[in-house]
Amino acid sequence: MNNRAILLGTMTSSSKAIAACALLIVVCIGALSFWSEVRNEDDREWVTHTLLVVEKLQAIRIDITQSETGQRGYLLTGREEYLEPYQAGLDLVRRDMQVLRDMTSDNPREQKAILRLGPLIAARLAELSGGIEARKESGLLAGVEAVAYGNTGGKWMGRIGAEIGEMSETERRLLNSRLDAATASTRKMKVVIVCGNALAILILLVKGFVIQRETGRRNLAEQKLKHANDRLERSTAELSETNIELESFAYSVAHDLRAPLRHIAGFSNVLAEDYGPQLDGEGRRCLGKLADGAQKMGRLVDDLLSLSKVGRQELSLGAVLLDSLLRQAVEELAPECSGREIQWRIGDLFSAECDPGLMKQVFVNLMSNAIKYTGKRKHAVIEVGQTMLNGERVVFVRDNGAGFEMQYVGKLFGVFQRLHKAGDFEGTGVGLAIVQRIIRKHGGRIWAEAELDRGATFFFTLGTPEISPASEPNFTIKQEVMHV
Amino acid sequence: MSNEVEILLVDDSPEDVELTIRALRRSKIANEIQIAEDGAEALDFLFCRGSHGDRTFSHPPKLVLLDLKLPKIDGLEVLRAMRADERTRAIPVVILTSSKEQKDVIKGYNLGVNAFVQKPVDFEQFGEAIRQIGMFWMLINQSPPRGAFAESKAQGA
User: Fold this and answer.
1) Closest CA to A304 of A355, A344, A253
2) Residue B81 CA to chain centroid, in angstroms?
3) B99 contacts in chain A (CB < 8 Å)
4) CA A114 from chain center: how many Å?
5) pLDDT tens, residue by residue, A54-83
6) What CA–CA distance (Å, rounded) separates B131 from A270?
7) Nearest by CB to B122, which of A256, A263, A265?
8) A316-483: which CATH architecture?
9) Residue A298: enclosing H or E segment and its boundaries?
10) What DSSP character marks residue A472?
């Protein structure tokens, strides 16, 4: 598993907050920049608008002057051709006024100014029109008189000029104040953008530094972990090597013990055969003890060899029908059952991945124990089957034999540990140790429940995967009574 | 013919030799037993050389009882040399040893041993094993015809 990926994957919440902060600042600055740009565009539009309004105001003045020039020409000459520029000026005034109204429709203050300007212009235009009417009806003199009498033209034009001037001035002032405000806000914006970006960069730099430092620390920690792992692996390797050495030692000791034992047994036999008649009863009894001792020790050595063999043996796993293993084991035990009445209750077992040779030994050892410890029962009952315990498939071997006291259960699987006197039941105390080793090698567990004189039950699980559940999950009883 | 060697017993333990001979005699199976205390001596005997230079290949033993742990040349090497030479290849060999270590058993059969027997500690069982081995290889089994392999064109060992 990659420790680095895990470490980098779990960013601390504070470091996440810092990153989020920098991101937020950058986003805010972006939004502000956009908003400022939009406002600048507004300002530019306002400038254009103001200039257009001012220009239109000037145009209106020129239009009036054009009408006036036409009117004067007519008044002096009476020639119709002068009415043309007059009329054109009028049209232009009207048109420009309309344009001005449209342009300022959204500005009440300007509209008010236009409302003031409108009557002034109308009055002036009416005056001009009056002069023309007088010239048409009463001739040159009347026209000139009309201009002279009511020579209010200058007054009107002065007021119109003043009004237009004031409006233009107001527009310019407004424009200036707007431009000032825009400049100030742009300056502020610049400061905000520069400071904000600087802050974001600073945060990111600090963050980067922190990440680098953390990465360094992580690398260091990983390295330490790796070293620790290496050490652990080395110790494990050493340990397993030591174990193997120990097993080989036990094996060779046991093996080398066999030869002298064979000689003791062999020569005590020779002695008994060749010189038996010359010995008295006590001599022969001692010789018998000698042979018995050698024999017993031989069994111990053999069992010890089996135990050490199980320890050193590599599992050769395969799909195994536990049912057929069990049958083979029962057949193998037939000699031990001779002369006994044993009721076998054999249930269906599942199939599992295991070492068939070793698993058979488990069954042989457990059932051989059951046969041995029911030796004093008239009707021995030995039950083998499977059951479910906490969702785990468990095999059990139960007998109605001598049992044992549960307080000694801890010694049950120890090498050379026996819970019964040799005089009651023979044995070396290695069989269950072998069974435990085999089960543990498979990654399973073994335990026992018993009551003194009421029998014992051994349970075991296999750590290896079971291949298929038995067709009949419930415990069924196949009865098979052996009378030999 | 009475002094023709019937069994070559290769074992470095005098006690085991004594007990084996006793068991064989008791079963009245073999009279002529040759002892070799190490592998080199066994090969000298089998290949008619050294102190056994006066022997001929035409009179091989009917059976070799071979221990594995031997001084100088071990049992498996003796077996290998025997099986490598056509003149000794057909001689029945039974490994008779204290060990029943799996790798020795496998090696033995790979080298072409005829049987592999672990010496039982119990003398009754030991005697019975020896008796059955002797009975089978001396009486029941048909040995290769005398001299059938003696003149083969093997490169001596």
Assistant:
1) A253
2) 13
3) 255
4) 71
5) 888 888 888 888 888 888 888 888 888 888
6) 16
7) A265
8) 2-Layer Sandwich (3.30)
9) helix A281-312
10) S
Q: What is the nearest CA distance from B32 to chain A, expressed in angstroms?
A: 21
Contact criterion met (CB below 8 Å) for A284 and B108: no
Min Cα–Cα distance to chain B from A423, Å? 21
Contact of A271 with A263, CB cutoff 8 Å? no
**Of the candidates A295, A313, A198, A189, which has an alpha carbon nearest to the alpha carbon of residue A247?**
A313
Residue A481 is classified by DSSP as E
Domain boundaries, chain A: 3-213, 316-483
Of A349, A356, A350, which is closest to residue A318 (Cα–Cα)? A356
B149 to chain A, any CB pair closer than 8 A? The answer is no
User: What is the pLDDT at residue A476?
Assistant: 42
Nearest residue on chain B to A248, judged by CA atoms? B101
Structure tokens at A428: 């070396």
Q: What are the backbone dihedrals phi and psi of residue A133, each rounded to the nearest 5 degrees, phi first?
A: -60, -45
User: How does residue A464 score in pLDDT terms, banded at 50, 70 and 90?
Assistant: low
- Tell me how far apart the alpha carbons of residues B123 and A287 are, in angstroms, rounded to a whole number: 13
- pTM higher than 0.80: no
Show pLDDT as tens, one digit a residue, over chain B (157 residues): 445 778 999 998 888 999 999 888 888 876 789 999 999 999 999 999 888 888 888 888 999 999 988 888 889 999 999 999 988 999 999 999 887 777 889 999 999 999 999 888 888 888 899 999 998 998 888 888 877 776 654 444 4
What residue type is A228 in one-letter code? Answer: A
Q: Distance between CA atoms of B157 and B153, rounded to whole angstroms? A: 12
Set out the domains of chain B in order of their start, with CATH numbers.
Answer: 7-140 (3.40.50.2300)
Residue with tokens 């072409």: B112
CA-nearest residue of chain A to B17? A263
Structure-block tokens of residue A476 = 């069924």
User: A251: which chain B residues are within 8 Å (Cβ-Cβ)?
Assistant: 101
Q: Which amino acid is at A36?
A: S
Record the tokens describing residue B127, joined without a space: 């005697």
Residue for token digits 């009551």?
A451
CA atoms within 13 A on the CB side of A287: 19
Classified as helix, coil or strand, A387 is strand
Distance of CA A305 to the CA centre of its chain: 52
**CB-based contact A294 B121, cutoff 8 Å:** yes
pLDDT digits (tens, 9 = 90+) for A302-361: 888 888 888 777 888 888 888 888 999 989 888 888 888 888 888 888 888 888 889 999
Chain A: residue nearest B20 by CA? A266
SS3 A393: strand
Q: Which of A263, A300, A303 to mutate to test the interface with B (most CBs of B within 10 A)?
A: A263
Q: Do B98 and A302 make contact, defined as CB atoms within 8 angstroms?
A: no
- CB of B15 within 8 Å of a chain A CB? The answer is yes
**Strands A392-399, A380-389: parallel, antiparallel or unpaired by DSSP?**
antiparallel
CB-defined contacts A:B, below 8 A: 53
Instruction: Look at chain A and count its residues.
Output: 484
All residues of chain A having their beta carbon less than 8 Å from the beta carbon of residue B98 are 255-256, 258-259, 262
